[in-house]
Amino acid sequence: MEVYDLFPGCVIQNRIPYIEDSARKVFDKLGIKTSDAPFGCCPDPVGFNAVHHKSWMAMSARNLTIAENDGRSIASLCNGCTQTLKAVNVELKQSEEERDSINAVLAKIGREFKGTISVKHFVQILIEDVGIEKIKEAITTPFTGLKIACHTGCHYARPSHIMQWDDPMEPKCLRELVEATGATAVDYDEEVLCCGAGVGNAEEEPAMFILKQKFDSAIRAGADCFVVICPACFQQMDGNQRILKKMFEKDYNIPILYLTELFALAMGYKYDDLNLKLHRVRPQALLEKYNVV
Fold first, then answer.
1. Which helix (H) or strand (E) is 3 found in, with range?
2. Which residue of 64, 151, 163, 250 has the fewest C-beta atoms within 10 A of its own C-beta?
3. Dist. CA 12–CA 276, nearest whole Å
4. Per-residue pLDDT tens for 139-183?
């Protein structure tokens, strides 16, 4: 199996490092080999890109050259990081003019973009490199009966001509991975709705209204919890349920799990092993019935 340079991203490493820990545990169980590298910020595919596109490309290209020098492709744990790194990688490979412009910047620090590696979201690696059957073989605590609302997030497969992975309007891979644990991925109307994190940087009220719509839709469908694959979505959905209660006078208290946390639990790790007590909405009560607390 290919060895990847692991790109956890700033948010996971600095604000929710227990998600990186769960990913490393799962990767070890499944034989996914990764190496650490001195990456910097990806940077953010929306705000930073909108402020200064060339600086955004240059910072991302520096990260790409680190992996190129290692001779390894990048495995990303974050939707936004994946989108940035993949978009810049594609643009610089396709445009000689852009490549020359960015390489002129990189030359100041002794680097050059060559376009020799690829960038993959960890979900893509789980599907393509590991496969559903091998994942099922690693499950020791099946979550039969658990109903999960899947949330892929906006940047996971968009823009589709760049990401070229999964279906942006009917994503299938996360559902397949969730159901490999024995759980049921529920159908709910707002599955592809944004979590609201992006607009929340500007205005809190519409962000909370979007989140409320998503939660209400999943709860109507019978979901016991959400599984996400993006740190920004995780923070928005796990961290703002108290604000929802205050604004709408409704107590949601719905657990949010990163996919790697769900897998780690299904592969034998316990609640305390994964520091799930650090979640704002602790999934302890939900997991007691599966004897993983």
1. strand 3-7
2. 250
3. 14
4. 999 999 999 999 999 999 999 999 999 999 999 999 999 999 999
CA distance 263 to 136: 10
- Strands 184-185 and 256-258 turn out to be unpaired
**48 to each of 44, 51, 53, 91, 127, how far by Cα in Å?**
6, 5, 7, 17, 31
Backbone φ and ψ of 154, nearest 5°:
-70, -35
- What is the Cα–Cα distance from 198 to 154, expressed in whole angstroms? 10
Per-residue pLDDT tens over the stretch 234-250: 999 999 999 999 999 99
Q: What is the C-alpha separation between 277 and 256, in angstroms, rounded?
A: 12
Are 172 and 166 in contact by the 8 Å Cβ rule? The answer is yes
Single pTM value for the model: 0.97
Q: How far is CA 233 from the centre of its chain?
A: 8
Q: Across the strands, what pairs with 6?
A: 75
